[in-house]
Amino acid sequence: MNKSVSANGRLHVNGIDLVNERNEMIQLTGMSSHGLQWYPEHTKKEAIAFTKKHGASLFRIAMYTDEEGYISHPEENKKNLIEAVNAAIDLDMYVIIDWHILADNNPQQNKEAAKAFFDEISRKYAGIKNVIYEICNEPNGEDVTWEKDIRPYAVELIEVIRKHDKDALILVGTACWSQFVDEAAKHPLEDHNYMCVAHFYAGSHGEELMNRIDTARNAGLGIFMSEWGTTTADGKGDTVFEEETRKWIAFMKERNISWANWSFGSRDETSAALKPETKGGAYTEECLTKSGRFVFTLFE
Ligand code: IDC
After folding, report:
1. Is residue 50 in a domain?
2. pLDDT for the residue numbered 170
3. CA torsion, ordered 48, 52, 54, 59, to nearest 10 deg
4. The domain that contains 272 carries what CATH number?
5. How many domains does the chain have?
6. For ligand 1, is residue 104 a contact (CB within 6 Å)?
7. What's the predicted TM-score (pTM) here?
8. Nearest residue CA, atom 17 of ligand 1?
9. pLDDT tens, residue by residue, 36-94
10. Does residue 300 sit within a domain?
11. Where in the sequence is the domain holding 148, given as residue range(s)?
């Protein structure tokens, strides 16, 4: 199936399924960038084109908020983000604008900045069919819950985006580093075009998370795997968990769950798809790590 934007148009959620403009099911697969503040070179047009050449239909731009990201350097990050989004649009690919909370564990913490950012960016890209909004990467911490923190945040953020764009797909992270999707399914949002986010790392997460995902889906909640890794959840270690990854890939394929792999970055860590010495610009197969070579065979 041709998974370009020109062939499929605006995506929407039909029940729990992601479908194209003809109501046909579509599964997007692709890469997530590493932190935009650290590796903007791997979000340029040549970078995204390299993933497309190997079959990716989706690119996720992980714009960290904390850790020297958007909150402390808004202009630089916004400029790099816009350049990457425009490149993905030129390449006829779907692109996720990811508000990458992590150390800033509660989405409420930078809510006002998030509202201002998504107000500006969804006005800029109103009606552009490539663009998908992910409003909080991974809420985490024992005291951060769907009911008390994430859901109220999502209600406000969705209202901001919907002022400019009635139909864009919106992705909402869930508690415990985007694992407690079953909790979210108990009190869904009222919006007509959103999915909740689940994330797995093949060396750390298995059946328990799969069961949570199935529980959520059985309750009527659509799921999008906007980030996953071949390693343990720290992104490091020295093992690429191929067999466990294949189980997850089959699980997602059976359920038509879209995905993006962490990461199209060159940090010296096992989850990175690019070797540490990789510079932006001229990408070849030689640039890929063990994980990168493996993941690049998995695009559907
Ligand atoms: C990791 C990066 C690592 C960085 C760390 C903190 O790979 O280089 O030092 O973040 O910024 C996630 C997060 C993602 C993590 C990744 C691996 O969304 O930002 O990246 N991970 O730990 N959730 C589960 C795992």
Report:
1. yes
2. 99
3. 60
4. 3.20.20.80
5. 1
6. no
7. 0.99
8. 235
9. 999 999 999 999 999 999 999 999 999 999 999 999 999 999 999 999 999 999 999 99
10. no
11. 5-295
